Amino acid sequence: MEVSGRVRALLLLCWIFQGESQDVEIPNREVEVVKGQTVVLQAWYSPTSDISRNTVLWNFMANESKLVISYSNGELGAGSPEFRKRAGFSRSMPSANLSIYINNTQESDSGRYLCNVLIPGVPGLLGDLRLNVKVPPSPPVCTMTGSPVLNGNVTLSCKSSSGKPVPQYKWTKTAPMSEVFFSPMQNMAPKKRTRGTTRTLQNCNDEETENGSRIEDSLVKTAQAVKGKRKVSASEKTGKQSSSKEEETAERPQYSHWLMKSEPESRYENGIDVKFGIEDLKGLPNQTGCWDGVRNYQARNFMRDMKEGQQAFFYHSNCKVPGIAGIMKIVKESYVDHTQFDKKEVNYDASSKADKPKWSMVDVQFERMLKRFIPLLELKKIHLQHKTTDGPLKDMALFTQARLSVQPLTSDEFNFILSLED
Ligand SMILES: *[C@@H]1O[C@H](CO)[C@@H](O)[C@H](O)[C@H]1NC(C)=O
Ligand SMILES: *[C@@H]1O[C@H](CO)[C@@H](O)[C@H](O)[C@H]1NC(C)=O
Ligand SMILES: *[C@@H]1O[C@H](CO)[C@@H](O)[C@H](O)[C@H]1NC(C)=O
Ligand SMILES: *[C@@H]1O[C@H](CO)[C@@H](O)[C@H](O)[C@H]1NC(C)=O
Ligand SMILES: *[C@@H]1O[C@H](CO)[C@@H](O)[C@H](O)[C@H]1NC(C)=O
Ligand SMILES: *[C@@H]1O[C@H](CO)[C@@H](O)[C@H](O)[C@H]1NC(C)=O
Fold first, then answer.
1. Which residue, by CA, sits nearest to atom 9 of ligand 3?
2. Nearest C-alpha to atom 7 of ligand 2 is from which residue?
3. Gene3D superfamilies, per this entry (predicted)?
4. Among 12, 57, 391, 404, which is least packed, fewest CB within 10 Å?
5. Is 207 in the pocket of ligand 5 (CB under 6 A)?
6. 86 C-alpha vs ligand 3 centroid, how far in Å?
7. d(CA 46, ligand 2 centre) in Å
8. Which atom of ligand 2 is nearest to the CA of 85?
9. pTM for this structure?
């Protein structure tokens, strides 16, 4: 440190003499590092005399200049306290390579660094660079304002307490993906419509691609009383559709249990009440209905995997307290969803041809209510726990593929949820 008094005067001189010229070679004059990591500040020069007689000084030009490290008269000199034990020369000195490293970089290390070489009898050499220590953002804390109701406006504001540069959070809008469910009574052939209202069903789906890569399940779910159900001919059931079914099932895991979503509360979509809760299924003849109107490839494929006799949870969605209400049974395996061909249907799909139908449905029958309603929130808590404890609900599709209206469950998942009843 005795060096620094003498040196500072010299340094100033050098500064005046050298101006901005870079006699010390600095390959990278804008250096970035993430806080906590080690950074190497590279510098070297081409000596013309015995380098062991030269003095090397690295200074941090903060509000006042601080010595980072020095080499003089064959000795290393420690710098000011904040760099002591963190900074060192990369090469053993003396060396024409003046590079230094700084361990465990701090945000306050950001700034300008000067490297000086003082050579007896000749003007010194100088180089400088700028270090920018970036700080990863801390996890954001988000708050929501506004009223989270259908069509309501909400504002989500997120802020990280630290981070450099200051983190910006940006929200992007994705395509609409509301799930809309229609009650069976609304989907009967007009002359069988018992409620007497003529309704136009609006499909909220946008264009889907046959490759099925979309995971959003924007679907219109309609169910229909068994009595009003169109008879499906055997040729429609077999043939092309079943062969493509075999192809698909060959590549996917087989599931034995399911979860199917529907809305139990009245909600008007273009003047149509989309309500169809478990009580509505219970109220149908023989407590059986068909699950038509699904217009999402993934959900459809799961329905095509369903086997007669398998059980599915009836899940109440888009309501005050979403969750699992009861159990139903698959009583008829997938067959052609007739609503795709019916121009009067909102689910009408002009691109679907009768000889190669795109959409399928199954028949379900009410089996029983759960002994108690199991709310989504409860399942979510368990899911989060299970993710750390490797429990049975760790991968539950309800959370990993939340948007799907028809979801597979493993036996373990199904049985675990049943165990929550008591
Ligand atoms: C430099 O001075 C300013 C104002 O006095 C202060 O806020 C800042 O923390 C100082 N910077 C360093 C690196 O000491
Ligand atoms: C900096 O870190 C390196 C690698 O961890 C270590 O070898 C070196 O001794 C450290 N330097 C100082 C001055 O603590
Ligand atoms: C100087 O040393 C640094 C750190 O070891 C290295 O990255 C750089 O390539 C060296 N430069 C020369 C010219 O050898
Ligand atoms: C929500 O915001 C949009 C655009 O600013 C506005 O048109 C709409 O009326 C708002 N809706 C409500 C419920 O305030
Ligand atoms: C599948 O669909 C997505 C989204 O529409 C599209 O980006 C992608 O290119 C498609 N892939 C193939 C193989 O068609
Ligand atoms: C009602 O459902 C049961 C059990 O699935 C079935 O055996 C029976 O044939 C059905 N009855 C009618 C009238 O469809």
1. 42
2. 103
3. Immunoglobulins, ph1033 like domains
4. 12
5. no
6. 19
7. 27
8. 13
9. 0.42
Ligand 3 in contact with 40 (CB < 6 A)? Answer: yes
Residue-wise pLDDT for 374-414, tens only, equals 999 999 999 999 999 999 999 999 999 888 999 999 999 99
C-alpha radius of gyration, the chain, whole number: 35
User: 213 CB less than 6 Å from ligand 5?
Assistant: yes
Q: How many angstroms separate the Cα of 245 from the Cα of each of 241, 330, 344, 361, 363?
A: 6, 17, 28, 13, 17
Q: With bands split at pLDDT 50, 70 and 90, how would you rate the model's confidence at 201?
A: very low
Distance of CA 15 from the midpoint of ligand 3 (Å): 25
Cβ of 317 less than 6 Å from ligand 3: no
Nearest to 181 by CA among 344, 291, 331: 291
Going from the C-alpha of 372 to that of each of 368, 417, 421, the distances in angstroms are 11, 11, 6
pLDDT band for position 190 (cuts 50, 70, 90): very low
Tell me the average pLDDT across 24-46. Answer: 93
Of 180, 377, 172, 401, nearest to 271 by C-alpha is 180
Query: Could you tell me the residue ranges of all domains in the chain?
Result: 2-134, 180-419
Identify the pLDDT of residue 19.
46
pLDDT one-digit tens code per residue, 309-327? 999 999 999 899 999 999 9
CA distance 298 to 217: 8
Beta carbon of 153 within 6 Å of any ligand 4 atom = yes
Dist CA 266 CA 264 (whole Å) = 7
Nearest ligand, CA 149: 4
Q: What is the pLDDT of residue 185?
A: 41
Mean pLDDT of 44-53: 86
Nearest to 363 by CA among 262, 255, 277, 289: 289
- Does residue 211 have its Cβ closer than 6 Å to ligand 5? yes
Q: For domain 2-134, which CATH number applies: 3.90.1150.10, 1.10.760.10, 2.60.40.10, 3.40.50.150? A: 2.60.40.10
Q: Which CATH architecture has domain 180-419?
A: Roll (3.10)
Listed range (38-42, 122-126, 178-182, 316-320) with the worst mean pLDDT: 178-182
Distance 213 CA to ligand 5 centre (A): 6
